[in-house]
Amino acid sequence: MIKGVIFDLDGVLVSTDELHYKAWKQLALELDITDFTKEDNQRQKGVSRMESLEVVLSKGSRIFTDAEKLVLAERKNSYYIELLQELSTEAVLPRVVETLTMLRERGILIGVGSVSKNTPLILKRTQLESYIDKVSCGLDITRSKPDPEVFVVAANKLGLEVDECLVVEDSAAGVVAAKAAGMRSLGVGPEYKELEADYEALNFNSNIHWDNLLKA
Ligand code: BG6
Ligand code: MG
C-alpha cells in the first residue's frame, strides 16, 4: 500500500530544464565549446552539478584540475541562480497543484527527491512549499542519482518504508535510483516511454489511474 509519493523536481513539478540548459550553454561558450546541444543537456537530467559539468567538458579538449572544476560549476550555478530570479508560479507544470492537492486529500504524504541543491529556492519561488511534507535534495546527500540515496532519505524523512513510497521521475537516472531504493515508479515527461518505469504517463494531464498506483 502506497502511503507517500516522492516527486522529482526539475521536469516533474517545475519546468527548469531550459534554464539549466541556458546556464550550461553560457559556460560552454566561455570555454570555447560551441557544440554543446540540447541533446547533451538531456544527459544532464537527474545527475549532479559536477557530473553535469563533465558532460560539458567532454565536448572540449581542455583538461581542468578538480579545483578549477569546482570554480566552473560554481560559475554555472551563479548564471542559473540569476535565471531562477525570474522563476514564478508560471513554471509549475500543468496539473501539478491539482495532483498534489488530490493526493493530500487522500491522506498521501508528499515528498520531493531531487539532487538539485537549489531545490529550496525553486520551491519557494514557485510557491510549492505548502503542498509538500518533506524535501530530500542535493543538500542532504553525498551520492547523486542513479544512487538511491535521495529517495531513501525522502522515505526516512516521511517516516515511511521504501515499499510504501512511489517515485515520480522524468529521468532515466531517477528511475534506476527508484528501483535501487526498492520503490515503484511513474515515468513522466517527453521521454516517458524510454524510462522503463513501472507506470508511464506523458504528464499529469494524462489519464493516470492513481487508484491502481496507490494500491500497489
Ligand atoms: C537535477 C537536474 O534535478 O539537478 C540536473 O535534472 C542538475 O540537470 C541537478 O544537474 C543538480 O542541480 P543543481 O541545481 O544542484 O545544480
Ligand atoms: Mg528531473
CA-to-CA gap between the ends? 6 Å
Q: What is the helix/strand order?
A: EHHHHHEHEHEHEEH
Summarize model confidence as the mean pLDDT: 97
Portion of residues in helices? 40-55%
**Estimated share of beta-strand residues:** 5-15%
Report what the structure shows.
This protein has 216 residues and is of the alpha/beta class. Helix content is 42%, strand content 11%. The protein has helices spanning 17-30, 38-42, 49-57, 66-84, 96-105, 119-125, 149-158, 172-181, 210-215; strands spanning 4-7, 109-113, 134-136, 165-169, 184-187, 199-200. A 6-stranded parallel β-sheet has the order 3-2-1-4-5-6. The longest helix is centred in the middle third of the chain and has 19 residues, at 66-84. Bound molecules: 6-O-phosphono-beta-D-glucopyranose and magnesium ion.
SSE diagram, text form:
Layout: E1 4-7, H1 17-30, H2 38-42, H3 49-57, H4 66-84, H5 96-105, E2 109-113, H6 119-125, E3 134-136, H7 149-158, E4 165-169, H8 172-181, E5 184-187, E6 199-200, H9 210-215
Parallel strand pairs: 1-2, 1-4, 2-3, 4-5, 5-6
Helix pairs in contact: 1-4
